[in-house]
UniProtKB/TrEMBL annotation:
Protein's name in the database: Exoenzyme S synthesis regulatory protein ExsA
Organism: Clostridium magnum DSM 2767
One MF term in the entry's GO annotations: DNA-binding transcription factor activity
HTH araC/xylS-type domain residues: 161-258
Domain of life according to the entry: Bacteria
Source species taxonomy: Bacteria, Bacillati, Bacillota, Clostridia, Eubacteriales
One Pfam entry name: AraC_binding
SUPFAM superfamilies recorded: Homeodomain-like, Regulatory protein AraC
Keyword Acetylation: no
Length: 260
């Protein structure tokens, strides 16, 4: 697995990750970034919000932030893909510009699409100004993904969305179901069942995913993995290592080494 970061000063616009012949994540997970995956070789079953999609070489997938998903390659010996993660402070503007209700789906790529994507990546490596790089990202994403071949519907329920936001705000706290029951006036069984049906994760599993995502950001700034685990809500180092690898396909130590 290879990982590149493209930063302008302290601003990280993109993270680009390339994987070949390996399983990148072992369970349902989510990203706070806007995620774009390009299948270069082989095929995979992708589960998003409980629905399954088949994606093959020459196609791309756009996954909305905080949407639970898992990728299950058909044949690891014939599997290669590239992921682009767009910083959360940047994708908000993109989604506002690109009617976000249609900005999630599967897209068949042609030679011109690949040319634009590679040009965008090359632009990130160059000496262009920040505004030039931002414009290139928006322009390329709009050109390629404004009309996906398959649009994936994002199902939302107002109360469940409020519970999700509550967990996102308090994910570092020692949350209890009683806290959610008291805050929203629902019974425990109803919360667990409805939340899992909607987001393909229980509230506890969702909180765990948020902690792992947060730990990933901390590792970029702090090489002390014991402290990272504690600061992201993990009080057991083995548990932290296990969950991180299940989400990203690398242990925290391997991930730290890959980004140095």
């Amino acid at each position: 697995m290879s990982i590149w970061y493209y930063k302008i000063g302290s601003c990280k616009l993109l993270e680009i990750k390339k994987c070949q012949n390996e399983l990148q994540a072992y369970k349902d997970h989510l990203h706070e970034e806007l995620s774009i995956g390009f299948i270069e070789k082989g095929a995979t079953n992708l589960k998003v919000n409980g629905k399954e999609y088949y994606i093959k070489a020459g196609e791309a997938i756009v996954i909305y932030p905080f949407v639970s998903h898992i990728c299950q390659p058909i044949d690891l010996a014939n599997w290669k893909f590239t992921m682009i993660y767009i910083n959360k402070d940047f994708y908000k503007d993109i989604l506002e510009d690109l009617n976000k209700s249609h900005f999630m789906g599967i897209k068949k790529l042609n030679d011109e699409d690949y040319r634009k994507i590679n040009y965008m990546i090359d632009t990130m490596k160059g000496n262009e100004s920040l505004i030039e790089k931002e414009e290139k990202i928006v322009s390329v994403l709009a050109d390629i993904f404004i009309n996906c071949d398959i649009n994936i519907e994002l199902v939302k329920d107002k109360q469940l969305e409020e519970i999700r936001k509550y967990i996102e705000i308090n994910f570092l706290e020692q949350l209890k179901l009683d806290d959610i029951v008291m805050h929203f006036g629902l019974n425990k069984f109803g919360i667990i069942r409805s939340f899992k049906n909607r987001y393909n994760a229980t509230p506890a599993a969702y909180q765990l995913q948020l902690r792992v995502n947060y730990a990933k950001h901390l590792i970029e700034e702090n090489p002390n993995l014991v402290q990272v685990a504690l600061n992201s809500g993990f009080y057991d180092q083995a548990h932290f290592t296990k969950e991180f690898k299940r989400a990203y396909g690398l242990t925290p130590k391997q991930y730290l080494k890959s980004i140095k």
